[in-house]
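Reopening this ticket.

The earlier resolution said the output was attached, but the attachment link was broken on my side. Pasting everything inline this time so it's all in one place.
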Amino acid sequence: MQTFGNIDLVKLHKTAFPYSRKAPASAVLKRYDRATAMCEAGECVVSGFHSPLERDVLHFPLKGRQPVILVPGRTMYVQLPEELDQPFAD
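Inline output:
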């Protein structure tokens, strides 16, 4: 297993945030509401943030101070996306 960041996050209670690439439009607002509620509750979120909807809602937890576990689909990033630089540094 390869890790980067705070490995202690694995010990926390986590809520998975997987959503299909084919999520229906009717589900989008519900997902945004759920992501907002998770942020307000300070829940640890775990996801690959691969689908467009997952990536869209990633900015909610990144704005706050809640823990986020990012699970890449196949390999670790060669270079982190710019929006993840500061969260990983923190």
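Reporter confirms the inline version is readable. The chain is about 40% helix and 10% strand. The CA atoms of residues 32 and 57 lie 6 Å apart.
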